[in-house]
Each structure stands twice: as C-alpha cells, then as structure tokens.
Design goal:
There is one protein chain. The protein contains 17 helices and 9 strands. With 535 residues, it is an alpha/beta fold.
C-alpha cells in the first residue's frame, strides 16, 4: 500500500499515505496477537477519527472541485460505516464478540478504503491540481486535524454550519472523556509490546507528559513539549533516586564565530583533567533540525566525557524553519573547524578529535566528514552515528515495520522534514543530507565508523545500509543494533540499561581510535559484516 508516484513531505497525499502505513501496522499487531489490545485500538480509533474528519474537510471538497463528486460521496459513505464501527470499539471490551467482530470489519474496511484512496482518489487529485496545490492542501489537512474531535461521531453532518458547531461541542466532550478514561495518556506511547520493560516505562511516562502526538501539534506547541529526558527525570523521582546530572569536571557554554553569526557551543571537561592534552569528541544533538537543544542531550555528552576521558564539545546550531537547510550543517562544519584550531586552548589534543551525533545530529556529523574530505582537510580519527538519518527518502523495511514506533514514527519524520526544508524542498536531495546516493569513491577514506541502531526506529534500515556502503568503500565500519529500545534512547542510561551498554560500546570505539582502548576489542582487525545485535 504505497503511492505509485513521488511526493514531498507535507503534501496532502504524502501525509495521508503515512497515516495509512501506521494504521496498517497497528492492525498487524492486533492480527498477530501482540501488544496491548485496548491501547492499540485506542490509537487506531484516535488516528482514524482525525483522519476521517480532516479528509471530509479537505480531501473530499477538493475532489468535488475537480469533478469527482461521486468519489467524494463514496469516501464519505465509507467513513460513516467505519465511524460506526469505531464507536462500537470504544464501548466494547477487547476479547468480547462485539469488539472482535467490529475490529475485523474495521480492518477490512480501512484496507479497502486505503487501496481506493492510494490507487484512485489521490493520484486523480494530484493530476488535476498539481504538486504545489497538494502542498497547500497538506497544510489545510494538518490544520483540520488539530481542530476536529478526537473520537468518531457518525451523527455529525458532512458539511455546513451545523457541522462546525457540533464539532466544537463534540471536541470538548471528547477531551473530557479522554482525560477521565486515560485514553489521552496512551496516544504517544508504543503499544506493540515490542520494547523491553524499561523502554516501555519511559515511553509510557513520556506519553502522559506530552500534550498530543508531536505530528499533530504546531511547531510552537511541539517546542514546548517535554522530551524523553524529562520522562527519565520523572521516573528517577518516582523511584526516589537522585536526579542530579552525571558529574563531570566542568560544563560551560562558549561563543564561537559561525557563518550566520555567533554560535553557542557547550564544552564538557573530564574530572581531574591535568595539563596533559586529552582527546576531544564533537557531539551533535538531534531533534529533526527543528526541535531540542543541548539541554535535552546533556546526559549523552556527560556520559561520553566520563567513559572516554575526553573533552566533549556540543554545538547549538541554528534551527529550521527560521533557518532552513543548509544552516545547521554549515554551523556544525564551522564548529568542527573552530575546534580543530582551538582544541589546544581547551586542553585537548588536536590530533585526536572524533565526531558523532544522534538522529539528524548523526547526519550532520557524517556530512561534516564528507565535506572535510572533499576539501582536503584533516578528518576526525573516528565517527559515531547513533540512530542516524542517512537519506531523506522513506527507505527500507523499518519505514513500515516501525511506522507506528515512538518517539519517532513515520508521520513525525515527515512533519519534521516538512518544517526543516520549507521553501527549499529541492535540498532534500543535497548530498550533505541525502547521504546514501554518495559514490564509493566519495566515501573511501572516511574515518572508522560505529553505527548504533535500534529495532523500533524508522531509521534503522538506512543506518544499516549506510554501514554496508561504507564497508563496500573500504571504510572500517560496524553496525550495532539494540533490540527492544527506541529512537533517541542513547542518553537515557540512568533509567535504561541498554543505553548504558550503548554508551560503553561507543566509548570503546572512541578510545580505540584515540589509542587508549584494549587491544582485544571486538572492533579490532577486519571490519565486522552485517549488524551486531544486542537483545
């Protein structure tokens, strides 16, 4: 179930197709008998309710305008039948005859509806209105999803003033019902039961903290939401454990010149640092180029300082959409060049600088290495890419298998790219961000690379593929996959054992590159093929 043509993040058909993949993945969990059945259906019900109402406000009027009124009417009729099934599911208990019968009918009906939309309705609309209008319709569709009720209401009329008034009343009623029932607490968690116990607790806690799934919020709302780091702090408090940050020698912000003005760079130094120069790691935080700051990734940097004995430097780059691509990439490259020149003044060894990052931070770390190579400048002695984005394409099996994962699901990835590349969508194929198409010649000579992925991450396939392409180019590269954890897990070692394991793995890779690791390390000798899996 995929569209038979290319789209851009933010296009109406792109947004709808993403929702289709998520819905089908939730159905697959239900059919396989895995996951929390009530929670899965609550997520299906929520997603389908918003989807149906937003389509009725945006997609079907657009179809009518191009002369496809019969298609629009057919879509509305199907929605009415599906809404009635969702009402039954909301009131029935999992396992009951009513629940299971309604669920089977819903799954069949939604899949039929998806096929019809993807093979007929959406292609016809694109042909009639063009790519630019599909982008405008996408903006209206997202706005509609933020304003419609959170549950299905078959009695609401299809259009007119009465529909708007009933939407307001139904929305207020749904908000109260969801708060009382606790349904609003589960909408941003992972309901698949494919995570380990610690990871599940983190996401459950985070889901109770956030206003709504990120991809339904405005950018301003999303920037005010708690991060996984905030969820970890809440868990520590619940368990009566210390919440103080991991101690390091010092952590201070310094200002460095950047291509768009001064940049703030946070410098972490190890405990007990002497006058002897120590290695340096530049660590680039994630956030889809639009969210989060060094504060949200503070734990990652502190862990690396203590596990490597190195100075860690983390740049606070410019964010989109205020500063679209390539602003952030330019800031990271400028910070690395500044670091190479000023490492000695920080107490670091300029001949032992490594680079790494998480999510899009990993993308920028890899791009920095590529740009330095192209410019003939000295390369880092190693790079580490944690849950990296290596292509802007919806690449690989994990885009389907983890489409419903949290905190990063498929619709959220598209939502981030929509903001990050607003007005510069041609840059989605720029080789500084779309890394996978780079030639073997372009990759040859890059530093030894450790790639850390997780199985509940839409980016897992592209991380593995990047490792394979580096190996094919003769680069010493290893991929380590952690099972049962999510995207953005690396800095959560205080409450997640596998994050602590990953931090040790990364530290060993870096210490080996610095000439300080034990000789008998798994990364010694010939590069490992495929992925090392840690369950």
């Amino acid at each position: 179930m995929t569209l038979p043509y290319a789209t851009l993040p933010g296009d109406l058909d792109h947004l709808i197709a993403d929702e289709h993949v998520v819905a089908n993945r939730l159905f697959e969990h239900l059919e396989a008998g895995r996951g929390d059945r009530r929670m899965l259906v609550d997520q299906v019900s929520y997603g389908r309710a918003l989807h149906a109402e937003a389509e009725e406000e945006v997609l079907y009027p657009a179809l009518a305008e191009i002369g496809a009124a019969a298609d629009a009417e057919e879509g509305r009729d199907e929605h009415q039948a599906l809404k009635r099934l969702l009402v039954l599911l909301d009131h029935a208990d999992p396992g009951s005859h009513v629940f299971e019968r309604a669920l089977n009918k819903l799954i069949g009906g939604v899949r039929h509806h998806i096929d019809k939309e993807e093979q007929e309705f959406l292609p016809a609309l694109r042909r009639a209105v063009g790519a630019e209008e599909m982008g405008r319709l996408g903006e209206r569709y997202l706005a509609a999803k933020r304003s419609v009720p959170a549950r299905s209401h078959p009695s609401v009329p299809p259009n007119g003033r009465r529909r708007r008034l009933m939407h307001v009343a139904a929305g207020l009623m749904d908000e109260v019902r969801d708060r009382v029932s606790g349904r609003s607490n589960v909408l941003s968690t992972d309901a698949s039961c494919l995570l380990d116990t610690q990871a599940q607790r983190i996401l459950d806690t985070w889901s109770r903290l956030v206003l709504a799934p990120y991809e339904l919020l405005t950018l301003e709302q999303a920037r005010q939401q708690p991060s996984l780091a905030d969820a970890a702090l809440k868990i520590l408090r619940q368990d009566g454990r210390p919440t103080d940050p991991e101690e390091v020698g010092s952590a201070a912000d310094v200002t460095v010149p950047g291509p768009g003005g001064d940049l703030v760079v946070r410098v972490y130094k190890p405990l007990g640092q002497t006058s002897h120069p120590v290695p340096v790691v530049m660590w680039v935080h994630g956030g889809g180029w639009i969210l989060f700051t060094n504060d949200d990734y503070d734990a990652s940097c502190r862990a690396l300082v203590n596990r490597t004995g190195a100075i860690v430097v983390s740049p606070e780059y410019r964010k989109a959409p205020e500063h679209v691509f390539p602003a952030a990439h330019e800031d990271v490259l400028a910070t690395y060049r500044w670091l190479r020149t000023n490492a000695t003044g920080l107490g670091g060894d300029p001949s032992r600088i490594a680079i790494g990052g998480e999510g899009v931070g990993a993308n920028m770390a890899a791009a920095t290495c590529g740009q330095l190579k192209q410019a003939g400048e000295p390369l880092p002695v190693a790079q580490v890419l944690v849950c990296p984005l290596t292509t802007t394409a919806q690449y690989g099996a994990s885009m389907r298998d983890a489409a419903d994962a949290r905190p990063l699901n498929r619709p959220l990835l598209s939502w981030m790219m929509m903001h990050a590349f607003r007005g510069v969508t041609d840059s989605l194929k720029d080789p500084r961000v779309d890394l996978l198409p780079l030639s073997a010649q372009g990759l040859a000579g890059l530093p030894p690379t450790l790639i850390v992925t997780t199985d509940r991450d839409v980016l897992q396939s592209q991380g593995d593929e990047w490792c394979a392409r580096l190996e094919a180019a003769g680069v010493r590269a290893t991929s380590v996959r952690y099972q049962g954890v999510m995207h953005d897990f690396f800095g959560l070692a205080a409450v997640l054992d596998k994050a602590a394991q990953a931090q040790e793995e990364v530290a060993l890779h870096l210490r080996q590159a610095f000439g300080e690791a034990p000789a008998a390390h798994p990364f010694d000798g010939a590069p490992m093929r495929g992925a090392k899996v840690i369950g």
